[in-house]
Amino acid sequence: MATRPDMIDLLELDPDFVRDPYPVYARLRAKGPVHHVLTPDRQDVWLVVGHEACRTAFTDPRLSRDWRRSGDIGRIINTGQDDPALAHMLMTEPPDHTRLRRLVASGFTPRRIEALAPRIQEITDGLLDAMEALPERRADLVDAFAFPLPMTVICELLGVPELDRAAFRGWSNEMVARTSPEAEAAAYAEMPGYLVELIGAKRAAPGDDLLSGMIHAVDEGGDRLSPEELIGMCVLLLIAGHETTVNMIGGGMRALFAHPDQLADLRADPGLVEGAIEEMLRYDGPVETSTDRLALEDVEMGGVVIPAGSAVLIVMADADRDPARFADPDRFDIRRDARGHIAFGHGLHHCLGAPLARLEGRIALRSLLARFPGLTSDADEAGLAWVPGMLIRGVRELPVRW
């Protein structure tokens, strides 16, 4: 796609944008909060940068997630308008969003999340045992640890059988960072088909898992999730329930490896882990931008008008590096007060699973560093393969040795 006179080609600004987008975002932010750009995968979108502007954009009802009713879903996802995989709360606005979130929120109460800690620790220890048994004392940290930990947790929470998880990894990868339009379309076609069978089995023989709970959840007014909404919510929870944590662990370890003084401090004082997780989320979080918003009308921000019908991305990665909000924002400091970051979004669509991701992150980081005191990067930074697109920020592999 060719750029128009008012568009900025992000790759022309910096060919290294995918690996390190932060300098580009800082240059854009210095000029204003809103920019019309061509993304690395050649999409025509409007970016919102800066902490204050991003928080404002998240709460602006004119920037909608309801593409199914108000826009053409094919502009952002290679699937049909009525695909049941999209019948979830992240693709709706109030009152539908309020209703859907209420029907699943009981599975993510603080008490229920904390009750998962012993099982998360058990899964973590098993994965670290397998790593420790490797005679070569080398592994891909993503494949051996960062991916299977949250994937196992969310699958057990929902009640997805063990043997189906490899397929879910392929579907999820395509849904958040497609390798091709054809592969994305296949994922959206295949995943709901599997879930129809799983939901049928859970309806016939319910367990104590979250999916069984969603099938039978009824609120005070007698409302329940429709068959289509059950599929959509499963898709959302399975994908959001592991993608964020995979890349929080991977990105966090990359930051620690690049700052050996911080890594040494954390090893010396495991009590710093909670603050370290927040700083990892702020400094190089797993979600670079929001999912696409649709401008329902002309929207003026910072003296710039975003035309009605435009796709808009809110750049959380830049918001959390804004010096107007965080002093010396390009410095990684696990003792920093990183509260106020928006790595999990802001407003109505703030991530429901954020407490689960934080719990997994704390257990994973503390256990990994305790088990492998000599853990270090075995990666050629220049050769790392990055997840495509601007939604998920992370690497496909992270070689380590100990």
List the helices and strands and how they pair.
Layout: E1 8-9, H1 10-13, H2 22-31, E2 34-38, E3 44-48, H3 51-58, E4 63-64, H4 67-70, H5 96-104, H6 110-114, H7 117-132, E5 138-140, H8 141-146, H9 148-158, H10 165-176, H11 181-204, H12 210-216, H13 227-258, H14 260-268, H15 273-284, E6 293-295, E7 299-301, E8 304-306, E9 311-314, H16 316-319, H17 354-371, E10 376-377, E11 399-401
Parallel strand pairs: 1-2, 3-9
Antiparallel strand pairs: 2-3, 4-6, 5-11, 6-9, 7-8, 10-11
GO molecular function: heme binding; iron ion binding; monooxygenase activity; oxidoreductase activity, acting on paired donors, with incorporation or reduction of molecular oxygen
Organism: Streptomyces lavendulae subsp. lavendulae
Pfam family, one: p450
Descriptors for this entry?
single chain; 402 residues; six-stranded mixed sheet; three-stranded antiparallel sheet; 11 strands; 9% strand; globular
Question: What structural class do you assign from the helix and strand content?
Answer: alpha+beta
Strand order of the largest sheet: 1-2-3-9-6-4
**Count of spatially separate domains:** 1
Query: Which H/E pattern describes the elements?
Result: EHHEEHEHHHHEHHHHHHHHEEEEHHEE
Poorly predicted regions are none
What is the global morphology? globular
End-to-end Cα distance, whole Å, is: 46 Å
CATH architecture: Orthogonal Bundle
Number of helices, counting only DSSP H or I runs of 4 residues or more: 17
Please report the total strand number as a whole number.
Answer: 11
Report the CATH superfamily.
Cytochrome P450
Helix content: 40-55%
pLDDT averaged over residues:
93
Largest sheet: 6 strands, mixed
Integer-rounded radius of gyration:
21 Å
Q: Percent of residues in beta strands?
A: 5-15%
